[in-house]
Amino acid sequence: MSDLKPLIVWRYHDGGLSPNPWKVVIFLYELGLPWEMKIFDRTDPDVRDKEPMVSLTPNGRMPVLEDPNNGLKIWESGAIIEYLIETYDKTNRLSYTTPRENYQLKSWMHFQMSGQGPYYGQRTWFLHLHHEPLPSAQERYANEVKRILSVIDKHLTRTQRHWLVGDKMTFVDLMFVPWNTLLLMFMMGPDFSTEWQEKYPRCWEWHQRLLAVESVRKAQEFTQGNVQKDPSATIEVKSVEEIEGR
Ligand SMILES: N[C@@H](CCC(=O)N[C@@H](CS)C(=O)NCC(=O)O)C(=O)O
């Protein structure tokens, strides 16, 4: 893949912890692709109405991927990951082509995109960003986070497998990592690790297995390295315990 031109991932200037761009970075490392990151300044109120954003995405949310090897521009992290797998995982190392497994992969991919991402995002919003405290909304999304973990835990318990689909790590396992990593950082707080291990042990072990994967470690180092390099963009959040009065 050394003759490839570097792929470009766009994200906002927001401390680098945005889970959806982070998710794409895992795949760029995992597939051994050359890449670079470009950053939009979200303090510019017109950034979404100007070039290059208007040609990249109609939605104004990140990530966006540009592939200079064929001129494609793709938005929505799930679509980006499907593209990377279909284009650059030529040996299907991270996927299956058999119909049963292929559609199971799609089911987990859509569950990550429509279940985990939005619910965890709302948990973050109502805990740290909403203009007034709304304990009922904070609680609803904390319960949804736990429900998502329990879905994964029950599945892994029932199948007695290490991974969500089949008997190898696939792209859908990797897709869940950034949001689950952020759970302990600022969505549920570090103390939640005890509840996670006790109530959802299979899910906890699966997440630990994923954290040990080289591409996951590299993507996390890259993400956290951005935060350290750029203290002005670090997200300042109160602790979960402080907000919930624990
Ligand atoms: N479903 C979209 C969600 C994209 C999204 O919400 N991205 C966040 C960063 S993780 C963003 O751009 N936020 C900026 C904003 O809300 O203004 C995807 O997975 O790509």
Automatic annotation (TrEMBL):
Classification via Pfam families: GST_C, GST_N_2
Residue ranges annotated for the GST C-terminal domain, each copy included: 98-233
Residues covered by the GST N-terminal domain: 8-92
InterPro entries linked: Glutathione-S-Trfase_C-like, Glutathione-S-Trfase_C_sf, Glutathione_S-Trfase, Glutathione_S-Trfase_N, GST_C, Thioredoxin-like_sf
Entry's family note: Belongs to the GST superfamily.
Protein known as: Glutathione S-transferase
Organism encoding this protein: Zasmidium cellare
